[in-house]
Amino acid sequence: MNRFLVLFSGVALLSAGVVGWNVIRPRSQPDTPTVLGTSAVSGQTHFDALSIPTEKKIQSPTPSPIFLSPTSSIQVPLVTVIDGPGDLIEGDMASFTWYVDVMPTTIRTTTIYYGTTSDPGVLVTQAAPDQTQYTRALQDFMDGTYGVPLRFVGSIPINAPGTYYYRGYARIGEKHYWSSERSFVVTSKPKHDIKVSNFPAIVISGENAAFTWDIYGPAATSGFTAIVGGKTSKPRKLEKTVDLPQTPYTSLTQDFNSGSFVVPLRFIGNAKITDPGVYYFRALAFINGKNIWSDEYSFIVK
Predict the structure, then answer these.
(1) Closest CA relative to residue 301, chosen from 282, 280, 277
(2) Please, what's the largest Cα pairwise distance for the chain?
(3) 258/243 Cα distance (integer angstroms)
């Protein structure tokens, strides 16, 4: 995460759902109150709902924020992103800090606009948000009364992987002021996977047949894993919402059909099959309420 040391005359601080007053003391500036609020995603999103880890105590929003009178000698308004998110994992909170520096005045809108398409170069003061490539925004300071110059902090969950581009923004009078463009990367959460690593191509009717399969991914506990199959194929990828009764398979191995198995782990199970023919099978594990399926394979019973 990039960090810059900047002197401010005022501070407005928000992190999702956390509200309270803090005092930040610049080296040569008077005390400045801190305002916190709640973030939301504007417009339509395509993010899947995910649980978001809470790192701080949730408090109620402050209904009547008060700002000390700031001072600034800057002639041309300037929006600067002071700090932004580093690399994230989907579902993490993205936190932004930006500063609106201008001769003392009041504004109604400032935010972070972001999206998955870059809009490089310099954005002129005639460039309204709907004329850019940025499709989402923090909602905390979109409609209010803020005495500037002032520093703002906002957070929002990012629930889809990808590269995101963003800028700080403030509307001052009838003009649009933008920071330079920055970016961050959101990677996918580690997911569980299951693969069959060894199985017999031909099984003799009534004899033991050994199957080996591996479960990969983050540490978890499984209460069921098995080789499941039958004489009817069910090709293509099976989603995690598909359970065993929705398939033509039955459990061929019984070794790990119940218990508590800490994964990642390798499993070796045995099956006795008497009815000759071609069998189609997969490895299956039930982890955290989801069915984890391997690809489909086949063997012949003679």
Answers:
(1) 277
(2) 90
(3) 16
d(CA 289, CA 266): 20
Spans of the chain, pLDDT less than 70: 1-73
* Cβ 13 vs Cβ 141: under 8 Å: no
The pLDDT tens digits of the residues spanning 58-72 come to 333 333 333 444 566
CA-CA-CA-CA dihedral for 67, 73, 76, 77, to nearest 10: -20
CB–CB of 209/271 below 8 Å?
Answer: yes
CA atoms of 97 and 95, how far apart (whole Å) = 7
The first and second tokens of residue 251, run together, are 């459990």
| pTM, rounded to two decimals | 0.59
pLDDT tens-place string over residues 113-144: 999 999 999 999 999 999 999 999 999 999 99
Distances from the Cα of 221 to the Cα of 259, 261, 289, 293, angstroms:
10, 5, 11, 16
The answer to whether 97 and 15 have CB atoms below 8 angstroms apart is no
Query: What confidence score (pLDDT) does residue 247 get?
Result: 97
CB 199 within 8 A of CB 299: yes
Whether 263 and 220 have beta carbons less than 8 Å apart is answered as yes
Q: Is 14 exposed, middle or buried, given 0-12, 13-18 or 19+ CB atoms closer than 10 A?
A: buried
DSSP 207: S
- Model pLDDT, residue 130: 96
pLDDT at 76: 87
pLDDT, residue 70, reads 54
Q: For residue 223, how many other CB atoms are within 10 A of its CB?
A: 13
Dist. CA 230–CA 46, nearest whole Å: 38
42 neighbors 103 (Cβ within 8 angstroms) = no
The neighbour count for residue 75, using CB atoms within 10 Å, is 8
The DSSP-derived string for 118-151 is ---SPPPTT--GGGSS--EEB-TTSSS-EEEEEE
